[in-house]
């Protein structure tokens, strides 16, 4: 297993801290570089006392960002502001768009060959922002840019296992589309092991999975959005990515990536194969049932709009 440096940008936040802990416990990580604009030196000192072999260092302020990024194999970005009740992920756009663009400019400069995973919402827009920023710097490789949607899959797996009394570790529900309420579509018809739902149950389960983020935002009542489950899901995605980089075959995850599986929708989440350079193959939709076909058609205008908003933020700034 090769030496793997992971850089985490926004490492002192609600997602960043538990994700840093999970990465400190990951056997495929050798070096963990934690960056934030606040509090990160303390987080790094704290984490460095855990007796696992992962070397931890904290970096703060734009002048230390280059050192954090240099030599990174994988960069994960949860930096930004979280959603509050009443806000949609799209409301976060203005603040988070600027944060992601600035961080990705540094990625282009200091670690252009790293795999880049974006958690910062709205992912439907921040991934196109990252792509356009990398393109402008002449270093864009679609295989190495991934929008992290694994929390949607984690939630779908949990809720379907609970509903059907199945062992959590056996259940896999692909989730396609984007990452935001009505653009999230679990493919219950492609669940492993196969499960059956009535039409009404299918609709209720689909809505439960799509609205799960909002349930957390409301339960936290102004204190932010999903952090622990998001960190768990991002750690799973990071581990799968590192396994792929290490040459492990047959590593599949759903992720929001550049794609031509849906006409005129340049980014889309489907199952992807992860390999030595990031995404080796976009697997496509498989066979959708009538309910899923209708739901896909219904989501596309919103998804395409959010993608275009991200592209325009970089290409045609106001
Ligand atoms: N560079 C680095 N870090 C930054 C920057 C920046 N320019 N701007 C903000 N941060 C840091 C903050 O200092 C904070 O530590 O990002 C962290 C964000 O943490 P929280 O405010 O706790 O937010 P969190 O719940 O972690 O969510 C972050 O992920 O899922 C998304 O919607 C969520 O977009 C939000 C993001």
Question: How would you describe this protein?
Answer:
- α4 (93-110) packs parallel to α5 and α5 crosses α10 (290-315).
- The model has no long low-confidence stretch (mean pLDDT 96).
- The protein is of the alpha/beta class and 318 residues long.
- The protein is built from ten helices and eleven strands.
- The chain starts with a strand and ends with a helix.
- The protein is 42% helix and 18% strand.
- The strands form three sheets. It has a six-stranded parallel beta sheet with strand order 3-2-1-4-5-6, with helices on both faces.
- Adenosine-5-diphosphoribose (APR) binds next to β2 and α4.
Separate helix tally: 10
Anisotropy-based shape: globular
| Uncertain residue ranges | none
Instruction: Please state the structural category.
Output: alpha/beta
Beta fraction of the residues? 15-25%
Characterize the main sheet.
6 strands, parallel
The radius of gyration computed from the alpha-carbon positions, rounded to a whole number of angstroms, is 19 Å
Query: Averaged pLDDT, please?
Result: 96
Number of DSSP-assigned strands: 11
Terminal Cα separation, in Å? 47 Å
Strand order of the largest sheet: 3-2-1-4-5-6
The ligands found in this model are:
adenosine-5-diphosphoribose
Residue share in helix: 40-55%
SSE topology string: EHEHEHEHEHEHEEHHHEEEH
């Amino acid at each position: 297993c090769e030496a793997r440096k992971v850089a985490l940008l926004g490492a002192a936040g609600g997602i960043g801290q538990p994700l840093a802990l999970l990465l400190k416990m990951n056997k495929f990580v050798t070096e963990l570089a934690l960056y934030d604009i606040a509090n990160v030196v303390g987080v790094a000192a704290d984490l460095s006392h855990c007796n696992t072999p992962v070397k931890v260092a904290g970096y703060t302020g734009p002048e230390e960002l280059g050192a954090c990024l240099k030599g990174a194999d994988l960069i994960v970005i949860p930096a930004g502001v979280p959603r509050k009740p009443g806000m949609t992920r799209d409301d976060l756009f203005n603040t988070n768009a600027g944060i992601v663009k600035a961080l990705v400019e540094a990625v282009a400069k200091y670690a252009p060959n790293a795999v880049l995973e974006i958690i910062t919402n709205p992912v439907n827009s921040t991934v196109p922002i990252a792509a356009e920023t990398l393109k402008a710097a002449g270093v864009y490789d679609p295989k190495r840019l991934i929008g992290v949607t694994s929390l949607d899959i984690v939630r779908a797996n949990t809720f379907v296992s609970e509903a059907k009394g199945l062992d959590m570790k056996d259940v896999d529900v692909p989730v396609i589309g984007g990452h935001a309420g009505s653009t999230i579509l679990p493919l219950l018809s492609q669940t492993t092991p196969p499960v059956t739902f009535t039409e009404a149950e299918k609709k209720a389960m689909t809505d439960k999975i799509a609205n799960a983020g909002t349930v957390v935002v409301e339960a936290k009542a102004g204190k932010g959005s999903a952090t622990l489950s998001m960190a768990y899901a991002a750690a799973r995605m990071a581990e799968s990515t590192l396994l792929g980089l290490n040459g492990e075959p047959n590593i599949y995850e759903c992720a929001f990536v550049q794609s031509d599986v849906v006409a005129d929708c340049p980014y889309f989440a489907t199952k992807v194969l992860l390999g030595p350079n990031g995404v080796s193959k976009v697997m496509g939709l498989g066979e959708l049932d009538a309910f899923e076909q209708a739901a896909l058609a219904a989501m596309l205008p919103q998804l395409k709009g959010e993608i275009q908003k991200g592209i325009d933020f970089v290409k045609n700034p106001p």
